[in-house]
Structures are given as structure tokens and as C-alpha cells.
Amino acid sequence: MSLPMALDDAGWDALLDDECALGPGVAALLSRHGLAQQTRKRYDSGSLPVYAVGTQHVLKLFPPTEQAHATIEARVLAAVQGALPIPTPQLIAADSHDGWPYLLMSQLPGERLVDAWPALTLPERDRIADTVGQAIAALHAIDTTPLADLPPRWDDFIAEQRASAAERQSQRGLDAFWLERVPDFLQRWMPPRTTQRVLLHTEIMREHLMVDQARLCGLFDFEPAMLGAAEYEFASVGLFVACGDARALRRVLLAYGYPPHALDEALQCRFMAYALLHRYSNLRWYLERLPAGDATTLEQLASRWWPLH
What per-residue confidence (pLDDT) applies to 16? Predict the structure, then answer.
């Protein structure tokens, strides 16, 4: 056996960071696919081991406990292929090795938007924001019939997230000042139930977008994709693409298809509600990235994080 095994979560976490332990298995895997002679370099971000293999391939490893996530990403990559105005990785192989699921994908060109953003001009940023909005609209227009059984079930998921919202923020170290405001905010601004289900990436952020010559040229990391309400998508877009930039967020939303009159406080508060309901919600971390300033309510915080004017 060339890939290691662990007995508990702490053991898996340690293994995922241990290149000496993973190396022989990764080498065997690349050999299986005729890529033994290619250079490999592990990306320095993300929670899973992901490797650039030469200049054409990417290998993503999942621990045996996350087979479901590997299956979701493989299915969604197939569904989005060629459907967006920007490229997505082409799935080459989806299999397992020593019990570890893996995906072999094509490598997208360019650099991550998070690295390129500071040097972009205002017109270049505008163009990228427009393309992000158009790409999300195309993603949400994909026929979800073949993905109808994709977990989790939206209504159950949202109900569970609401019930556990304050507890989850407490576990992640949110200050009591903000923690005590979470239940009342969700009572006031809980998004209305809808029967419409779209394909959600759920983590569209500068770290998952690629640019080349100041043009958007790729979207990746579909592992946490699900079916659900469209506005859930914009929790991460506001926090991690626009990053509090009103001009960028407004252009994304208009390019997506929102009419100007719909860009109001209620929309901001629904985005905040979905940020609280998000699978990976961490308000303490968000406040570190985008400080509250003089905001003392979650409504005021929503206007800082999803500014529209």
C-alpha cells in the first residue's frame, strides 16, 4: 500500500499535510496514468492535496472519508464542461488508489485572480466583474435534471443550518457582541423559501478564479457544489470576489441579470443571511478579512460587505 491510512480525524488532518507520507502514492498514481516523468508541485492553498503535474494536468486527492465530495466534483465538472463563458477543468479520470479517491483534470492557464487583482487597472477589474456575473448566470442556467440527487437536500440543509447558526459561529470563536445578534437577524431576514433549484458552485472567490492577460480564463474547485437557491451563491461572491468593493459587486450583479431597482438593503441582508447559513460560514474570519468599522448591527455589516452604491 503506497497511500497511508488513519483511524481518526486528527490522523487524517496530519496525513493531508505530510508530503513524505503521500509522495509514494502520488508517484504510483501518476505512473498509472503515464505521467511518471512529469514534474509535480503541490499547490500551497486549499485543504486537500492538489498537485500541478507538468503544465497540462492537475491531480486532486481526497481521503477515503470524502468519497462523496470526489463524486460530486466529478459529476459537476462533467455538467459544466463547455457551458460557461470561461473554461473549467476537463475531467480526465475519476478513480481511487489505495482507497483514496482522486480526480485527474486538465490544468487551467494563467494565475489566480487573488494574486493578479492588485495590479489590474479599473477597466480590467470592470471587465472581470462583468465576466464573473455572466459566468454565474450561465452556471445557474444549466439543466440540473441529471444532478437532481446531488446532496444535500436543500430544504433540509437550510433548516439545519438555521437551527445551528449561532452554535456554529460560537464554535468558530465569534465574539459575543456579534453572536447574540445572529438569531434575531435570521428571524428578520431569513430568505423566503423557493422551489427553484440551480447548480451552485458555492465558493466563487478570487482564489478559485484564473486570469490571463487581465482576462478571466478559468473557474475551478467544484467539490462543494450543490443545488439550491441562486442567492446563496452571492454570499461568497460579495465576501471573496468583490471584497467590499461596491463597484465590482454592482457590476457582477447587473451582469448576472439583477435589475438596478433590485439592488437594495433587502438584497444585502439576504446575502448576509446566506453567509450565516453557508456550509462553511465563519463570521469571526470574515471580520478579520473585512473589519466591521463603525457597524454595530448585522444590517450595517451587510451594507459594508455587500455595498451596492
Answer: 86
